[in-house]
Specification:
The protein has three helices and 15 strands. By secondary structure, it is α+β, with helices and mostly antiparallel strands.
Length: 259
C-alpha cells in the first residue's frame, strides 16, 4: 500500500505515493543532502515544526496514525499497555523473532547505532538487512490490535515497519521516508518520533515487523491495545481463584441436594 499524504496542524502537504519496498539511500547520502539544502528550507522542515503532530494517512481506511516529536519519548498512548520495553521481559504472550545483525543495548556507538534521543535505557538496533518480528496474537488472545505505538529513533529512509495480519501477510508498510524528516539526525525531535497507529478490527493486525536496509534502525518501547482490555497477570490469578471458589460452592450444593 502507499502513503497518500501527511498533514501537519492546519496544513495539508501532498506527498507522492511510493511503494513500500522502495530502496532507501544510504545514511551518508541523506546527511550530505541535508547539509546541501538551503537554510531557509531547513528551517521550514526542521525545528520550526518541532511542536506539531504529524498525521499519517494510509490508502487503507482501516489504518490511521500520527507521529509526535520526541527527544524524549512522549510515551505510549492512553489506554495502551507497554508490550515491549527492552529493559524487561516482553508482556506475557508477546514473542519476537529476529534475524541478522540485531543488537539490544544502551548508549551509542559511532557508525553502528545511536540511542533514540533522550533514551537512556536499552533499545533495539537493526543493522542492514536485519529484522525483528513481534507477534501479539497470544497476548491479545487472537483479537486484532486496536492500536500500536513505538518510539522511532534517528529516522532514516531505509527503515520499515510492516503490519502483519493473522495469516502472516503484510497489510501495510510505513517507511521512514513516509515521515516528514528522515535524515538520520540523532538529536532532532523531528527525526526521533513516537509513531501512533490505530486499526479497525477488519485490518486484522496481530504482528509488527521492523526491518532495515541500512545501518541502522533504532526503536524502543512498543505499546499496544485491543478493543476491550487484556487482564494483567494478577487479575488473571484473581479470576482463576474466583472461578475455582464458585465451582467449589456449586459442587457442595449439588452434593447436598443428592444427599
Amino acid at each position: 500500500m502507499k502513503i497518500l499524504a501527511i498533514a501537519t496542524t492546519g496544513v495539508l502537504l501532498a506527498v507522492p505515493g511510493q511503494a513500500a519496498e522502495k530502496a532507501g539511500a544510504s545514511e551518508k547520502s541523506q546527511m550530505d543532502a541535508e547539509k546541501s539544502r538551503p537554510e531557509a528550507d531547513k528551517s521550514r522542515s526542521g525545528e520550526a515544526r518541532s511542536g506539531t503532530v504529524i498525521e499519517i494517512l494510509s490508502k487503507s481506511k482501516l489504518i490511521s496514525g500520527r507521529a509526535a516529536p520526541g527527544a524524549p519519548d512522549p510515551g505510549v498512548a492512553k489506554g495502551e499497555s507497554l508490550l515491549v520495553g527492552f529493559d524487561a521481559k516482553n508482556a506475557p504472550g508477546v514473542w519476537d523473532k529476529s534475524a541478522g545483525e540485531v543488537i539490544t543495548a544502551a548508549g551509542s556507538v559511532g557508525g553502528v547505532r545511536a540511542a533514540p534521543a533522550g533514551d537512556k535505557s536499552l533499545y533495539r538496533s537493526l543493522g542492514g538487512g536485519a529484522e525483528s518480528l513481534f507477534d501479539f496474537s497470544k497476548w491479545s488472545a487472537g483479537k486484532p490490535l486496536a492500536s500500536l505505538s513505538v518510539y522511532w529513533g534517528s529516522i532514516d529512509s531505509y527503515n520499515y515497519l510492516d503490519l502483519v495480519n493473522s495469516q502472516g501477510k503484510t497489510v501495510w508498510t510505513l517507511a521512514g521516508s513516509d515521515l516528514p524528516q528522515f535524515n538520520g539526525d540523532q538529536r532532532s525531535p523531528m527525526t526521533n518520533q513516537r509513531v501512533y497507529l490505530k486499526f479497525l478490527p477488519e485490518a486484522d493486525t496481530q504482528a509488527a515487523r521492523f526491518r532495515s536496509k541500512g545501518a541502522a534502525f533504532e526503536f524502543d518501547n512498543i505499546g499496544g491495545s485491543i478493543t476491550g482490555s487484556v487482564p494483567e497477570p494478577g487479575v488473571w490469578a484473581l479470576l482463576v481463584i474466583g472461578f475455582g471458589f464458585v465451582g467449589h460452592v456449586l459442587r457442595g450444593r449439588r452434593q447436598a441436594m443428592l444427599s
